[in-house]
Write a structure and sequence with these properties.
Main location: membrane
Distance between the termini: 44 Å
CATH class: Mainly Alpha
CATH architecture: Up-down Bundle
Keywords: Cell membrane, Membrane, Transmembrane, Transmembrane helix
Number of helices: 15
Strand content: under 5%
Number of domains: 1
CATH superfamily: MFS general substrate transporter like domains
Organism: Pseudomonas fluorescens NCIMB 11764
Helix content: over 70%
Order of helices and strands: HHHHHHHHHHHHHHH
Protein name: Multidrug transporter CflA
CATH topology: Growth Hormone, Chain: A
InterPro entries: MFS, MFS_dom, MFS_Efflux_Transporters, MFS_trans_sf, Sugar_transporter_CS
């Protein structure tokens, strides 16, 4: 393959990964401005609609348990195409649902299909090498920030013109495009030498018994949970409690998305200058700071948009600094089992996000205090894990 053709294919692959990232914001972010409409349509509370998003994340995590190892067994391409097809069935079922219970069932089906998107981590491991892997993961985190920043505006526009169904229409269209592009661009990945059916669970055991591997993914999951909990609670805080319109809510979250992008830019700069441990400490330190700022602002000014948004800008910067490097450090430990590695990571990330957001939703009387305490607890846990990983690395280097 000549250099120009190789470069063009690499660009196409990066574009495919970015489109998968864009597709991932629709079930969780673009739908946010439609919370009141969904609540009215299904005659249920906004808290119940928020719970459906948390259950989506938990369903996604359970799906991911199988996706990674099966991709090592059958190949990334096959699993990705199958998962996208299942997500299309789920999204279509959501559109056709007339009862909230049916909507929840099809949301879980959609989540099961979306579990295949976790293969983006394994695809990066398969298709790129060395520093390029870390650079592309930072690009994807930054791209996610851009998509998150525009998703409330897009969701508001879709709600105004197409109703709550709009986000599902666009999801179906994008998923069909990704399905076609993945079928054309991706070659079937080679089977892992550890991918025999009898070794399905032994691969999980080997990875999950590694303190460093689990620690890095748990750090990423705890950081993601801070971001995800705010995303799930934001329609309740801004539209139900503060009575912002969907349009005002969208512009409020635009600032949050800008901070996500800024965090990605800072992460790129830190990646070139600081070791991984320092990057993780800085990211988690910012999350802890955001919790303290949120508690102080809530005590001084009560529930206001600024009292919530200012600490969240700090928090999301910390999240985008800590997560990409933690992901990369985890994925490089077992490159021969990239599918299983990404699967474990996806489970940790979405299970943390789903479970913690459910817990915060139960504290509906004072969501800001619950969020702030969550940030403090999770960042402290992450810093403790990082210290344990460093001790383990020193012990391995000394032996």
């Amino acid at each position: 393959m000549n250099p120009s053709t190789h470069t063009a294919k690499k660009s196409s692959l990066i574009l495919l990964l970015m489109t998968m990232t864009l597709l991932g914001v629709f079930p969780l972010d673009v739908v946010l401005p439609s919370f009141p409409a969904l609540s009215d349509y299904f005659q249920t509370s906004a808290s119940d609609i928020a719970l459906s998003v948390s259950l989506f994340a938990i369903g996604l995590a359970l799906s991911v348990v199988l996706v990674g190892p099966l991709s090592d067994l059958w190949g990334r391409r096959t699993l990705l195409l199958t998962g996208i097809a299942i997500s299309l069935v789920g999204a279509t079922g959501c559109l056709l649902s007339s009862e909230y219970s049916g909507f929840l069932v099809f949301r879980v089906i959609q989540a099961v299909g979306c579990g295949s998107f976790v293969l983006s981590q394994a695809l990066i491991q398969d298709l790129f090498v060395g520093k390029e892997q870390e650079r592309i993961r930072i690009w994807m985190t930054t791209a996610a920030g851009v998509f998150i920043s525009i998703s409330p505006l897009l969701g508001t526009w879709l709600q105004m013109h197409l109703g709550w169904e709009g986000s599902f229409y666009v999801f179906i269209a994008l998923a069909a495009i990704v399905w076609i592009k993945a079928g054309v661009l991706l070659k079937e990945s080679p089977r892992s030498r550890n991918a025999a059916p009898g070794r399905f669970f032994s691969a999980y055991w080997r990875l999950c018994s590694d303190l460093r591997f689990m620690g890095y993914w748990l750090i990423s999951g705890l950081a993601f949970a801070c971001h995800f909990s705010f995303i799930v609670m934001s329609p309740i805080i801004f539209m139900e409690r503060l009575a912002l319109s969907p349009y005002e809510f969208a512009w409020t979250l635009l600032l949050y998305g800008v901070a996500y992008v800024f965090g990605g830019i800072v992460a790129s700069a830190l990646h070139r200058r600081l070791p991984a441990n320092s990057q993780i400490v800085i990211g988690l330190g910012l999350i802890a700071l955001s919790g303290l700022v949120m508690l102080w602002l809530a005590n001084q000014f009560g529930l206001t948009a600024a009292a919530v948004l200012i600490p969240m800008l700090i928090c999301t910067a910390g999240t985008t600094i800590a997560r990409p490097i933690a992901n990369s450090k985890a994925m490089t430990l077992y490159p021969q089992d990239a599918g299983t590695s990404s699967s474990v990571g996806g489970v940790m990330i979405f299970l943390c996000g789903g479970v913690i957001s459910v817990v915060i939703n139960l504290a509906s009387a004072d969501l800001t205090t619950a969020l702030a305490l969550c940030f403090l607890f999770l960042s402290a846990a992450g810093l403790g894990l990082n210290a344990l990983i460093m001790q383990r690395n020193l012990a391995l280097n000394a032996s």
